[in-house]
Amino acid sequence: MKRTSRPGNHSMCVQPMFLIGTYDENGKANFAPITWLSATSDGERYLIVVSMFGGKKTRRNVQRSGKMSANLVSVPMLPLADYLGSFSGNDGEKQGLSHAVSKGEKLDVPTLDQSPFVYELAVEKSVVTGESETFFCRPEHVSVDERVPFGEMGKGLDLTMLDPVIYSGDYHTLGKHLGTIGDFL
Ligand SMILES: Cc1cc2nc3c(=O)[nH]c(=O)nc-3n(C[C@H](O)[C@H](O)[C@H](O)COP(=O)(O)O)c2cc1C
Fold this sequence. Notes:
It is a single chain. The chain has helices spanning about 55-65, 80-85, and strands spanning about 15, 20-25, 30-35, 35-40, 45-55, 65-70, 100-105, 110, 115-130, 130-145, 165, 170. By secondary structure, it is mainly β. The chain has one domain (about 15-170): Pnp Oxidase, Chain A (Roll), CATH 2.30.110. The strands form three sheets. Strands 3-2-6-9-10-5-4 form a seven-stranded antiparallel β-sheet. Strand 4 (about 35-40) and strand 5 (about 45-55) form a beta hairpin. The chain is globular. The two termini are about 25 Å apart.
């Protein structure tokens, strides 16, 4: 393998794309794509880690309310996600593409009816690094398309059934489901 040097960036921290849903101070729902999303643990429970930069509306809404939804973007949702990432709620309500919105099942957060996988997240702690803020969140509720088998720790989950958009700087779809841990011993 002959490699060549490239500028360092995060493009190999490849992410499924999520739309973060928040309410503003007037109860208006706002969604924006945030792909800096990961997981960690506090020793007892899992935490979902969501990172945002700048003065975007989503960040301000999370700072105020302490909660958000994270709605997985499936391939049919890509035009909506691309649109929601191209405009800021700071400049007015994003009404360019219609999207059906419900309230979370456990938390007071807006969720997208079209999404096949939704986290409802309560912020436990946040850390500021320069222009960015990273929120460590407790998943208070998870709902998944009822047709998709979903076991403990995601075992047996065939991600291809959720048809997620994968983001690395460009948009991709997922390849094949290859098996589970231990299938290759
Ligand atoms: C594919 C994609 C991924 C993005 N990922 C992030 C991210 O991880 N963190 C972030 O702060 N902004 C991210 N953005 C930028 C916001 O979505 C964008 O600034 C949006 O307009 C913010 O809207 P708001 O002001 O209504 O919150 C992303 C945008 C796109 C299109």
